[in-house]
Amino acid sequence: MKTTLKLMMVLFVTLLISCGGKEKKEKEKISYGRKEAPAKVDAPKDVGTPASKKVDLTNKGVGPITSMTLTTEIDQKMAAEGAEVFKKMCTACHRPNKKFIGPAPKGLLERRSPEWIMNMILDPEGMVKNDALAKELLIEFNGSPMANQNLTEAEARSVLEYFRTL
Questions:
Q1: Is 116 exposed, middle or buried, given 0-12, 13-18 or 19+ CB atoms closer than 10 A?
Q2: For residues 62 and 113, is the Cβ–Cβ distance under 8 A?
Q3: Domain 74-165, what architecture?
Q4: What are the backbone angles phi and psi of residue 56, rounded to the nearest 5°?
Q5: Cβ contact 128:138 at 8 Å
Q6: What is the pLDDT of residue 3?
Q7: How far, in Å, CA of 17 to CA of 113, rounded?
Q8: Helices (H), the chain
Q9: pLDDT tens digits for range 19-47
Q10: Are 134 and 61 in contact, with CB atoms under 8 Å apart?
């Protein structure tokens, strides 16, 4: 019985050793004096700052507004009108203080010129076609274009004044 057990154990160990280690060995390449080109290593892509966080106060955008001067005092009556227009026309895609379908307008005047903001409100299609920053925003927000709400210049200006209060 002991010899049969020993014989079975030796057979089992031999079987285990013979089954393992089936690694494929690559043949060593012969170079014949030529050197191989170094493997191309892709540099990590610069993720950079998202368009909604970029600061560009010199870009005035493309559209009807080419120059605009804001007073130091905020016109509270105009801002209240702008808040109503924003609530009625813009809250489907924008939240005042956080990113939603579109960017949040809070702090917008610290990142964009008043002319750019007005042109984006008045002619979002033209801005996306002709303004690089607007194109980047479209990409950042998953291709969701800003809808043209057909606001008048006065309504857009009141919305801009509302943005100043955020």
A1: buried
A2: no
A3: Orthogonal Bundle (1.10)
A4: -145, 95
A5: yes
A6: 82
A7: 75
A8: 2-19, 76-89, 114-122, 124-130, 132-140, 153-165
A9: 665 555 556 555 555 555 555 444 344 45
A10: yes
